[in-house]
């Protein structure tokens, strides 16, 4: 299900149980999928051809000049092109030099202007700074039927190369540790929507109940099994993108006949068609990663 890939989940468990250190902090790259991958990282369909390339959304850069306390301007020999407004910035050499939550306001060829002034003794020349398109994650909260899993939403715009041929209809995105191949770390669907718990009746079609879900007829949604839960058995399939019908405040159907009751999680998504000669960009607050 969306969230941690097997690679990331195993790394977290190995760290948690004292077996191994977490993989080193490094660069991150945003990938687009027309079919979402499995937890293993396989089974999905990443966009290919048509000038497609993953976009760097996190990484480090070393300063080549100091920034005095009370000043917001960072200095580089050459500002990496992937650093964009809205990214968070931290000083991994001197963590107290940049306050938590500080973001990039603007860039030039050799400078980055931050949303807050440097603090303490300031940022030193040669300090290693880490940038990320995502801020710190929010903790999970609430209880069913009003749960909000731990989540994080992009704070800046992710811009891909202009498509020289159709990329198809993009439905999901993933975070990798390399610009090609590499390890899938996490993935989720497009759109700033939360996963909602549901119960489902035995009916043709099965009726999904998710209080105050906000869905309307024709909305595209995806369904997944909850941790420890059991999806209804069906005469069809809950796989892929489904379409909401018979919507009320608390209930709806997705055209799947069920042969038992069950439960799961459902999420509204955005489907993004990328034709030739279009340069796709994903605005701030449009890419949400969740983890139950």
Would you give an account of this structure?
- 4% of the residues lie in helices and 32% in strands.
- It has a domain at 193-275: Elongation Factor Tu (Ef-tu), domain 3 (Beta Barrel).
- The strands form six sheets. Strands 1, 2, 3, 4, 6, 9, 13 and 14 form an eight-stranded antiparallel beta sheet that branches. It has a six-stranded antiparallel beta sheet with strand order 18-17-20-15-16-19, with no helix packed on it. Strands 5-8-7 form a three-stranded antiparallel beta sheet, with no helix packed on it.
- The protein has one helix and 23 strands.
- β7 and β8 (111-114) form a beta hairpin.
Number of strands: 23
Q: Enumerate how many helices there are, as a single number.
A: 1
Helicity range: under 10%
At CATH level 3, the topology of the domain at 193-275 is Elongation Factor Tu (Ef-tu), domain 3
Named at the architecture level, the CATH assignment of the domain at 193-275 is Beta Barrel
Give the topology string: H per helix, E per strand: EHEEEEEEEEEEEEEEEEEEEEEE
Biggest sheet character = 8 strands, antiparallel
SS content category:
mainly beta
**Which residues sit in consecutive blocks of at least 5 with pLDDT less than 50?**
none
What is the CATH level 1 assignment of the domain at 193-275?
Mainly Beta
Distance between the termini: 10 Å
Average pLDDT taken over every residue: 94
Proportion of residues in β-strands: 25-35%
Q: Give the overall silhouette.
A: elongated
**Cα-atom radius of gyration:** 21 Å
């Amino acid at each position: 299900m969306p969230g941690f890939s097997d690679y990331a989940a195993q790394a977290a468990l190995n760290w948690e149980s004292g077996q191994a250190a977490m993989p080193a902090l490094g660069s991150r790259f945003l990938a687009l999928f027309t079919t979402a991958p499995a937890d293993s990282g396989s089974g999905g369909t990443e966009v290919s051809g048509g000038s497609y390339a993953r976009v760097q959304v996190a990484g480090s850069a070393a300063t080549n000049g100091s920034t005095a306390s009370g000043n917001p301007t960072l200095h580089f020999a050459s500002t990496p092109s992937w650093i964009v407004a809205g990214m968070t910035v931290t000083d991994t050499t001197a963590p107290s030099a940049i306050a938590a939550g500080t973001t990039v306001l603007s860039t030039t060829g050799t400078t980055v202007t931050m949303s807050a002034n440097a603090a303490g003794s300031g940022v030193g020349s040669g300090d290693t700074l880490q940038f990320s398109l995502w801020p710190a994650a929010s903790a999970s909260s609430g209880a069913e039927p009003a749960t909000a899993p731990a989540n994080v939403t992009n704070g800046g715009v992710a811009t891909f190369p202009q498509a020289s041929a159709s990329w198809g209809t993009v439905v999901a995105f993933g975070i990798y540790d390399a610009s090609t191949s590499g390890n899938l770390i996490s993935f989720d669907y497009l759109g700033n929507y939360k996963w909602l718990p549901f119960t489902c009746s035995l009916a043709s079609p099965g009726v999904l109940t998710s209080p105050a879900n906000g869905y309307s007829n024709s909305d595209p949604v995806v369904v997944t099994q909850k941790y420890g839960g059991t999806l209804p058995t069906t005469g069809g399939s809950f796989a892929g993108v489904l379409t909401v019908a018979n919507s009320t405040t608390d209930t709806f159907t997705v055209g799947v006949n069920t042969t038992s009751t069950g439960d799961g999680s459902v999420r509204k998504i955005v489907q993004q068609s990328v034709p030739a000669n279009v340069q796709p960009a994903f605005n701030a607050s449009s890419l949400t990663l969740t983890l139950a």
